Amino acid sequence: MNDLLMSLPDQGEFFKTLIYLFVTYYKVILFGLGITVLLSVVGTVGGFFLAIGLTGFRTLEVDKKRDTLVIKILKVIGQKFAVLYVTVFRGTPMIVQAMIIFYGVAQANLFSWWSPLPAGLIIVTLNTTAYISEVLRGGLESLDVGQMEAARSVGMTKSQAMRHVMWPQAIKNALPGIGNEFVVNLKDTAVLSVISVVDLFYAVRQSASESYRFLEAFMIAAIMYLILTYLSSKLINYLSRRMSQTGEANL
Amino acid sequence: MSTLISVQNLKKSFGPKVILNDVNLDVNEGEVITLIGSSGSGKTTLLRCLNLLNEPDQGHIYFEDSDLMDPNTDINHLRERMGMVFQSFNLFNNKSVLDNCTLSPIKVLGLSPDEAKKRAVKYLEKVGMKDFISANPKTLSGGQKQRVAIARALCMEPKVMLFDEPTSALDPEMVIDVLNVIKTLAQEGMTMVIVTHEMGFAKDVSDRVLFMDQGVILESGTPDEIFNYPQEERTKQFLKRILSH
């Protein structure tokens, strides 16, 4: 490696240095890029499913007349938990959440498998859950109340109505927002390098600190991130358009 | 003729505003009742209390063997037996016409998809919408949507049908198709409670017309009695205003 660094292009040879660094470090950089994509995909997909549950808690309604006391209490606890969860995870930076969760679990010695990558996957998932939950709640609230009433009027329980009528429509409405969360994750997972997750940012920083060519190295990072977000946005737009033509989001 | 629904001393307020103030009503089997009155008189709220889409504050509603005000009554089972048609149709936007009609028979009544489809075809044919079986609700006109909504309710084979201003959101030329469907149901002996502003239709189809005003049933009688010989001053005023144009 040091040999390679010996033959670095001169200062000021911006493009040459850029290419040189990429060629030298492409394995590390592409690996990091893979990890960034992995974090974003797992975070968004996992966050989506957890968010459905969390939004379910959030939208619980106490039936004053028919619920037993225990059910009422459980419903209120569920609601409060969901509100608290969203407030905490949206109200603190992910970089701080990463530090607390990663070192907290490490210090408590809870899991033998605890290491940066699985920790990073869990942190980004927990964080995304809060954001997608808000997107889903918006999707549900944008539906006409008549949809629920119609479902109830033909004898469906609230959960049947949610499952067959409300959620499919809410998720469809929420797809652009969920896609947006994916794009945000591609960029924001960079902060997970703080707990030594070897993502794109971490890989580039390594190449920068070894070569002392920070401008060129981080320009590579910028280009990589831009390609990722650009392609993802295109893909998401294409998928949303197709979904709106074919109609139904299947659960 | 046995009583199917019995409403006793029903009261309902939204906040400080009293919507229903001591309403009493018996709906007999096979009877067609229309509720008329100006907006805000409580017609829609009364109708929505019958299947507990609005929760009454006080009073009693008995339907077949159930006491609706008893917290232990299974309201889902109750609603299976009461069809409802809304002013704004409320077709499930994520389902085709067929799936709108089969969803609840399959999920709630436990019919097989084949049985449910057979039933859906039967009722869609009845409302003249069989050709649109695989259509997306978004592509239908208001009158078509409303006829599908009627078929969807009929697919549960309910004991009674509740209509909440079923033609108020329709273009004038669509109204007649929907009213004809409802008339057919009336002729076949379906028990129905209908909130409507269509006076001609109310005259035609009703066994009994109820005039509601300020949360009470002010006057009730045969269409002839209400429309030709109204007793109450408020009824006369209402009919004069609504029939004068």
UniProtKB/TrEMBL annotation, chain B:
The keyword ATP-binding applies. Its main location: membrane. The keyword Repeat does not apply. PROSITE patterns: ABC_TRANSPORTER_1, ABC_TRANSPORTER_2. It is a peripheral membrane protein. PANTHER family: AMINO ACID IMPORT ATP-BINDING PROTEIN, GLUTAMATE_ASPARTATE IMPORT ATP-BINDING PROTEIN GLTL. This is Amino acid ABC transporter, ATP-binding protein. It comes from Acholeplasma brassicae.
